[in-house]
Write a structure and sequence with these properties.
By secondary structure, the protein is mainly alpha-helical. 75% of the residues lie in helices and 0% in strands. The protein contains 4 helices and no strands. α2 crosses α3.
Length: 128
């Protein structure tokens, strides 16, 4: 029973749950970014180039006489840049919120440590 208890403690730790939520949200976010890249940005940027090359799809871009599909590479590179930029913007916003949340140290309302020590010293002198 000890191993089940340890597993339960591990599985319900905040870090594990946060990680699971992050993975699920990351998967959904990946689908959104993939759609943005493949359905909006790639056609908008590469449509003139594809028309000039008489191609319908980016994956048709190949080096003549080889199996090198540089069109797929371009699509993956554009996708990576967009994902990296989106994460950069998101993390920048989160960091900005974290900085604002940090409370300023409150002014001490009671006596300082030095004042308390001085009072203790004075009391000890009176007792002697």
């Amino acid at each position: 029973m000890g191993i089940l208890k340890e597993f339960k403690e591990f599985a319900v730790k905040g870090n594990v749950i946060d990680l699971a939520v992050g993975v699920v949200i990351g998967g959904a976010f990946g689908k959104i970014v993939t759609s943005l890249v493949e359905d909006i940005i790639t056609p908008a940027i590469l449509t003139p180039a594809l028309k000039a090359a008489n191609l319908q799809n980016l994956s048709e871009l190949v080096v003549p006489g080889t199996a090198i599909k540089y069109g797929n590479f371009l699509s993956a590179a554009i996708s990576f840049i967009i994902v990296a930029f989106a994460l950069f913007i998101m993390i920048k916003g989160i960091n900005r919120l974290k900085r604002k949340e940090e409370p300023k140290p409150a002014a001490p309302t009671g006596p300082t440590q030095e004042q308390l020590l001085a009072e203790i010293r004075d009391l000890l002198r009176k007792q002697q």
